[in-house]
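User: I'm putting together a teaching handout on how multi-component assemblies are represented. Below are the sequence lines for each component of a complex, exactly as they appear in our records. Could you produce the 3D structure of the whole assembly as structure tokens, so the students can see both representations side by side? Please keep the chain order the same as the input.
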Amino acid sequence: MFKTFILSFKLRNTYKVNTIIYAIKQLPIIRKILPNSLYQNRGIKIFANIISAILEIISIFIWKLVYILLMLVAPLSLYKTNMINNFFNIMLFLTIGGAFMNTYMFNPTKDKYYAMFLMRMNAKQYTLSNYWYSILKVIIGFMPFIIIFGRMAGVNLLSCIIMPFFIASAKILVGAYNLKSYEKNNIVVNENTPVKFVWGIVFTCLILAYLLPYLGLSITPFIFTVIALISIIGAIFGIIFINKFDKYREMYKKILTSSSMNTQKNAEKIARETVLNQIEITPETTSNKKGYAYFNEIFIKRHSKILSKSVKWLSYIIIFIIIGMIFFTQINEELRTKTNEMLMSSLPYFVFIMYLINRGQTVTQSMFMNCDHSMLTYAFFRSPKAILSLFKERIKSVVFINAIPAILVGIGLSLLLYFTGGTTNNLDYLIIFVSIISMSVFFSIHHLVMYYLLQPYNAASETKSSTYSVVNLLTYFVCYYMMKVKLPTTYFGIATIIFASVYCIISLILAYRLAPKTFKLRV
Amino acid sequence: MKLIVKNVTKNFEKKEVLKGINFEFEKGKIYGLLGRNGAGKTTFFNCLNDDIKIDSGEFIIEENEKQRKVKIDDIGYVLSTPTVPEFLTGREFLKFFLEINQKTIQEPKTIDEYFDFMKIQKEDRDKLLKDYSHGMKNKMQMLVNIIANPNILLLDEPLTSLDVVVAEEMKQMLKSIKKDHIIIFSTHIMELALSLCDEIVLLNHGILEKIDKENLTENELKDKIISALKEENNV
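Assistant: Of course. Below is the structure of the complete assembly, with chains in the same order as your input.
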């Protein structure tokens, strides 16, 4: 059994290492230097092995820490009721819910498929050794954080030590119960597609975990201890049952070949179908135009799900928020002055908002998957004239569609400024409006130009350009960072307008010059 | 008209896939490009179609004793997996295609005449292409490439996934248009190559080599091809 475990660990490590090397090879510049023989290189293997080991340790500790902080420590600080009872209460119900959501045993993963079916490892030995390893990770991973934060909340040390064992025991009981129901009723459990019963339990647990403390009705440490001890004693029988269970291979055959495994294998296909489903045809979705304008107009109309319709909803929401804000600022004076201050100093904040509501990225993805990935195989579509004609049509459509919510935001903010006390410089109204519009135009053009200059996808719709990913990530971070920036609206607004105009002109010139060369399928 | 391949090489890192290909393809013939898995058939097509850059060499068209480089619109490329714009109906795709290429299409016919030519049923013509079957998408892709009337038609395993009836229709159709084109047809199904193609070309160990089939029975020819592919591989 130990040998099986070591083998499976090595197997998992091998493809983790290869994945790491592959990821390194995708980085720009570095990619050019490194040869394919990298996968055989000892030095880089050792390096990747170290990363892999670090990742394994992270998987033991970091996620549990994040979990404890997010689900337990952060909410605890919000209640005014008995902290110790609340700690026990949240811990109890999260453990029960978590036992159903996160079983390891019933999580269909690729490594299980590789090991048990491709490599034909002994299913029982493989499952049990890895299962006990994962349970051990639960206990070791939770122990330090529960002790630290438990002690800080005033929980006694013994209870803190019991808790990780309770978590493990609950998982074992649920695992054993699921195996039993497979043996008895042939029900295959898959934790990624929970049934209603499981959803019900998880939902109830979440409500009990966080509502009871609010009402001051948290369970007492005594009740917790009784339940935990029962669970731990019960788990002993669970362990015996799990070790005895004999049908792992046939059960996994069902789990791993059922729909969920296919979703893993064909994640690409699913993504593809989702995008395909964006296409809608109705009698109105045609066009009287000619050539590329005809082609583009039909594309835009048949993708109204992600374009005009979503923009329409967005517009309603914006109007609703603006009217709401105007209303509340009129009845509450403090809010009024604060809003006015914010409008005069936090225009950078709206860079992020405009980034979020821009449809550019979604549209370019659909453009590729539903249109260009096939059209680019035709010679006529790749002629410079064709690329530029369609680019022009697309710029017009994308800018226009995104402009509608932008105009509403622009007008809304100007109105809000007026109703919250106005400004000393009347030019500010105009600056707010124009800078919001230029942000919207900037994002629309940015996404489309990046798509045309870097065309990152290959024929199978996989992203092959790390430069593209890096640019997208950078865009996101810059916009996100903008939320924290506070600058006088007048200056920031003018700077934005100038920047956006210059950027748009330069990138359009670049696109016109380079797109005929860069806009092709990656191989 | 001739397509002259001059000393074309292509390496992927250190692996030489095309090692100085020299070959002449002539108009009016269907060439069957045979090669083992991974021999570089698709790479060769991708190079010809300018999807990937070649490391050295050139592709030249010789017409009326004048030579020039191959241009993008000399080539029609039909991939093994059909590619059509899913958001258009068959009719809209054709309409768009005809409008864009109206200057270059000689003697255009009506859309329905094209559909008839390709044996695409009336009830399918106004459906979205995303709802077309594999075979029908393939027909559309072939049709558009034929209308564009490129000098060179590259077909990458085009018939392998079609049902027997459609495959036979396609074969007849290819034979009917071959007189005006250079058709290069990649496959690893030998019987298909033998029954459809005028010339058999092997892509093996990075070079193209014509198989002389004169005075050979079909079985002798098959043996010759197999041994050629095997032999080369042992080098």
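A couple of points students might notice: The domain at 2-234 of chain B is CATH 3.40.50.300 (Rossmann fold). The radius of gyration of chain B is 18 Å.
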